[in-house]
Design a protein that fits this description.
With 342 residues, the protein is α/β, with parallel strands linked by helices. It has seven helices and 17 strands.
Length: 342
Amino acid sequence: MQKSDFYYDLPPELIAQTPIEPRDASRLLCLGRQDGQIAHHNFYDLPKLLRAGDLLVLNNTKVLPARLIGARQPSGGVCELLLLRQTATDTWECLARPGKRLKPDSKVVFGDGTLVAEILNTLPNGSKIAKFSYDTDTIYEKLEQFGQMPLPPYIREKLADGNRYQTVYARHPGSAAAPTAGLHFTQPLFSQLSEKGIGMAEITLHVGLGTFRPVQEDEIEDHPMHAEWYTVDKAAAEAINNTKRHGGRVIAVGTTSCRTLEAVAQAHGSIVPASGETDIFIYPGYSFKTVDGLLTNFHLPESTLIMLVAAFCGREVILNAYHTAVAEQYRFFSFGDAMLII
């Protein structure tokens, strides 16, 4: 398939720059997976749109304040490191600016000098491997002290409250980007869902910045998919299997939860407790093994994420839904509105 098969025209003014308040006041486009029927709701209507016995699978990763501004040594020149993923103890793959000036053995000092990065090497993709030293128990404390939230490049406005780029159930630090479908949930909404008999299970997938990397190849099958670390524990596996056994629907909250569940099912034949890295690339022609419904935001044209959603309900169906969302002036991307496909 061609990358251009997943293009749609999006007016720039529909790219949401700030999150809506309250979280669950966002709009929700409900799309029939089989018939393509469209209905318009708000996210707080979700309990009415699901059934008792359904299960929402949530990605409980937490975004790291992983953007660090520091000074190169000994020159003092300003540079930036964006932590992507941990490769070993205190060692991280990072994006660097200006990358050409950060050679192996270069050092960068952050804040008051209590966090230092030493550049070990440069990867073929241009990323740097850096080893960090600090005076606290973990690097996470230093990131909280000196780091900034790594917002997507299409968000130009400064975020007043960094917690608005975290889900209310975020608990395991490790992501370079938020699982944005989960940003709409509130604790009162969870209570309403639970009262209706709709279950919740949590998995973890640490979202990498590969999420935002454009597909360069014209033939999408040639696109090298980024790898991300995930874990599905025993409780989540049991909840998913019990839901299936009793005729309920497993609804992935976000493409990250979807990729995790499908990666485990593809590797093991069913959902079992598992951890590892996945580079699963889901595009039309893929046969879904676990996910029955998908709750997701609106994604960039020609991105791997819109390809995944197109695989779930059909390319023509999803592009028609996107054209409708544009006409109805839905808000797009990370801080935008949501879609329920079921």
